[in-house]
Amino acid sequence: GASVLTCMFLVYVQFLVCSVVPGLTYRCMDLNLSRVPTEIPSSTQNLDLSFNPLGSLGSNNFAAVPALKFLDLAR
Fold first, then answer.
1. What whole-number distance in Å separates Cα of residue 66 and Cα of residue 43?
2. Contact between 44 and 65 (Cβ < 8 Å)
3. Is residue 1 predicted with pLDDT exceeding 70?
4. Are 37 and 11 in contact (CB under 8 A)?
5. Number of domains in the chain
6. What is the largest CA-CA distance in the chain?
7. N or C: which end of the chain has fewer CB within 10 A?
8. What pLDDT is stored for residue 16 in this prediction?
9. Cα separations (Å) of 68 from 15, 34, 62?
10. For 73, how many CA atoms within 13 A lie in the half-sphere containing its CB?
């Protein structure tokens, strides 16, 4: 299987860790995110943002992720 990498990025002066399977999955569930991270790789097909207090989402929030096939926004 694909190796799982971990990426860290800065959001509102707080380090958050998302689980990444390169070219396939980006998981940022339950990280108290209030916005969609801008660091999502464009090759991501599965994006898990579940259980985050995201505000409103616009049509351009995922424009930089053209390969996106599955988006989980469950609360």
1. 7
2. yes
3. no
4. yes
5. 1
6. 35
7. N
8. 58
9. 24, 20, 8
10. 11
Measure the CA–CA gap between 57 and 3, rounded to whole angstroms: 31
Quote the radius of gyration of the chain (alpha carbons, Å): 12
d(C-alpha 61, C-alpha 63), whole Å: 6
- CATH for 56: 3.80.10.10
Range list of H helices, 3-65:
none
The tens digit of pLDDT for each residue in 35-62 reads 998 889 899 999 999 999 998 888 789 9
Domain enclosing residue 43, as ranges: 1-75
pTM above 0.85, yes or no: no
Using the CB atoms, write b or e for 5-26: b if 16+ within 10 Å.
eebeeebeeeebebebbeeebb
Mean pLDDT, rounded, for 60-72: 93
